[in-house]
Amino acid sequence: MASSTTTIDLAPKQDSEQTGNPSPSTTISPSVPTNPYTTAHAHLLTHGFVILPATLFPSFSLPSLRAAATRLTHSARTGHWPYIRTLPKQFPPWPSDPSHGIWGVQHLLHPSNPDALLFARSYFDSELLRYACAMMGMTSSKNNEKDGREELVMELYNLLVRPDDKFALRWHRDDIAADATKEEEEARLCPPEGKPSAKHTQWNLALYDDASLIVVPGSHRRARTEVERNAHPYEDDMPGQMVVRLKAGEVVFYDNNILHRGVYDSSVERATLHGSVGSVGGGERARNVLQHGVGEWVGGIKYLEGEEEWMRVAEGMRERLVELGRVSGDVGFFSKEE
Ligand SMILES: O=C(O)CCC(=O)C(=O)O
């Protein structure tokens, strides 16, 4: 665990040969006492992402998570797990037929997954949730019991895997369409001072080294430039782009409206846990979350308080997701045909 005076290198690994960009790095000096949660949040606000070292999350057992990921991925590739991301489709909904290949495995916490409890322990991990709270601007510290976890809403927990064939995602923001005008982008991304903090956050936790995610640092706070707007959707050399290189066990939190894409190597093993959580009052998240189908099964599970300490927080989060589904009705899809 990081104490407030430990040196925590929150610097993303810069792919300087590829981009030639200055590194958007933050290194906390050992001599200056800092709060690692607020430092990480500040980095996210400035650059649109922040990489956290594996040492911050000692309760994650990579061997156990890898074994469970391997089991579920095998089920998915062989047609025994219907909740999948299929090639060549980028956005939900996805069919449940894996015959053209998959690039993701959905619904790790689904009750029919024999390893759902193992994945739940990682999704609801108290330290991870402390960082998630911090990313949404809620105060976090080790000694603060009321650190915002009571306001969290369960969202998605999926697994991103090596595709069976050559595959990449186009440049996108998760919740702003590619045909949005400059003014529409600015209305979403350049809020006036004093606007309330983000109502959700998302992360990738790499179980193996992973260099699939590519971002344009800083693009979460501005409209696209003319070059970005006119670029090919699969442009391999976007100005300022940066490969997010994760070592196994590292976690990247990122703003889902940063300009980003995925570029995959079908010959390199990938098992990256892809999670998100919200906070109460984030009704605008309904489509992004519910379009994945989580509402169809989350009402049928329960985390039993008293069995394990984390379950009290988990059960509250689950109930708030059920409520989001109840009040939201039919939310449709972000980009149904793509
Ligand atoms: O593969 C990744 O890490 C990126 C995934 C992504 O961009 C998405 O699911 O929208």
Short description:
The protein has helices spanning 16-19, 36-47, 62-77, 116-123, 126-135, 182-189, 226-230, 286-290, 311-328, and strands at residues 49-52, 84-86, 102-105, 152-161, 200-206, 210-215, 242-246, 251-254, 260-262, 271-279.
Q: Could you describe the 3D structure shown?
A:
The protein has 338 residues and is of the alpha+beta class. It has a single domain, classed as Sandwich (Jelly Rolls). It is 25% helix and 16% strand. The protein is built from 9 helices and 10 strands. The strands form 2 sheets. Strands 1-8-5-10-4-3-2 form a 7-stranded antiparallel beta sheet. It has a 3-stranded antiparallel beta sheet with strand order 7-6-9. The termini are far apart. Bound molecules: 2-oxoglutaric acid (AKG). The site of 2-oxoglutaric acid (AKG) has 8 residues, from strand 6 and strand 9. This is Phytanoyl-CoA dioxygenase family protein. One of its GO terms (molecular function) is dioxygenase activity.
Could you describe the largest sheet, including whether it forms a barrel? 7 strands, antiparallel
Q: Which architecture per CATH? A: Sandwich
CATH superfamily: q2cbj1_9rhob like domain
Segments where pLDDT lies below 50 for 5+ residues? 1-8, 11-23, 25-29
Look at the structure and give the mean pLDDT.
Answer: 87
Radius of gyration based on Cα positions: 19 Å
Number of domains: 1
Biased composition (Low complexity): 19-33
Keywords: Dioxygenase, Oxidoreductase
Region (Disordered): 1-33
Protein name: Phytanoyl-CoA dioxygenase family protein
